[in-house]
Amino acid sequence: MLKDEKGDLIADSQSTVARWRNHVSQLLNVHGVNDVRQAEIHTPEPPVPEPSAFEMEMAIEELTGHKSLSIDQIPAELINAKGRKIHSQIHKLINSTVF
Question: Is pTM, for the whole model, over 0.70?
Fold first, then answer.
């Protein structure tokens, strides 16, 4: 059993299918927007801003050596030993791929 928009019960299968079609159409269609790409996307959290060069520098300085390698297989000692040039490149890489 299903209710129509007015709250009355619908008993026949044709009306039930039509009601579900209407209900799903109302849920999925964005009214007043011709292009779906123009529709606003609501996320539960605000977007995370790009990390600054300073934040990246601080995170790299906090890396400690003599630990097991992460998925990239780059030891922390190598990142720290290469200095600011590699830090700048890592910052560019992260901002270009994540943000």
Answer: no
Nearest one of 88, 55, 60, 53 to 74, comparing CA atoms: 60
- Angle, helix 53-61 to helix 84-98, in steps of 10 degrees: 120
DSSP SS3 for 25: helix
Output the pLDDT for position 63.
79
How far apart, in whole angstroms, are the C-alpha atoms of residue 99 and residue 96? 6
Which tokens in the block code for residue 6? 């007015």
Beta carbons of 80 and 65 less than 8 angstroms apart: yes
SS3 content of the chain, % helix, strand, coil (to 5): 50, 5, 45
* Alpha helices, H only, 1-99: 13-28, 53-61, 76-81, 84-98
56 CB-near residues (< 8 Å, 6+ apart): 87, 90, 91, 94
